[in-house]
Amino acid sequence: MSNLRTDSPPFPARALVRVRPALAALAVFGVALQALPAAAQDGTAQLMQIGQRFADEALQQGTSGAGTLPLRMEVQLGQLDSRLRLAACARVEPYLPAGSRLWGRTRLGLRCVQGPVAWNVFLPMTVKAWGPAWVLQNGVASGRPLAAEDAIQAEVDWAEDAAAVYANPEDWVGQVAARPLAAGQALRQNMLRPPALFAVGAQVRVMVNGGGFAVTSSGKAMAAAGEGQTVRVRMDNGRQISGVVNSEGVVLVQ
Predict the structure, then answer these.
(1) Which residues form the domain of 183?
(2) Do 204 and 173 meet the contact criterion of CB atoms below 8 Å apart?
(3) Counted domains in the chain
(4) Fewest Cβ atoms closer than 10 Å to its Cβ: which of 170, 173, 222, 239?
């Protein structure tokens, strides 16, 4: 079950929300340790403070232009390996490793840039992004369409999963559960799919769009599909093509 709070206030209607704070351009700052041995208990505490300060300031800068996004950021630091024996360092520089981001479970790099021995360690870290979402009140079987009463508003950790949460009820009401869903789960994009507009083996219209022309034909759907989904169609001549289903159930091929 996802971590959630149901005491959050109502939130304004929005489209499907995808939030990933842009932090790549943040400047890295250095912190002097006054030649304190990082392997000592107080030195480890200093490293943790550096990591906490860097994460807090980076998140503040990264979300300063987020406007009305209802996010409440929270950082939870892990522990450095207790077996580490690091040389004294006059200046430690925190940084985000390549490919990392301050979102969900991640890590922060700490490197000595002014000391007798250059070292580099990684501090595990979890960044939570608390905000409003829709949470299931009851379990939903795979393939069942969702109704408005299936979910309520609550505050959840958006960063707990890579998939985006839904903000508007109209984005998920009527959508079909792509797998069995449990009570307490926040509704996310990868949990639902559009209702099928035709079944496997159904005769469907196919429209091929080219440079200034469009050709309409027909074929048999090789899978059930709904609006916005990609489906393969076996044409009458035996050829197989793929296209995207529109709201009228026509398969569009570019």
Answers:
(1) 130-193
(2) no
(3) 3
(4) 239
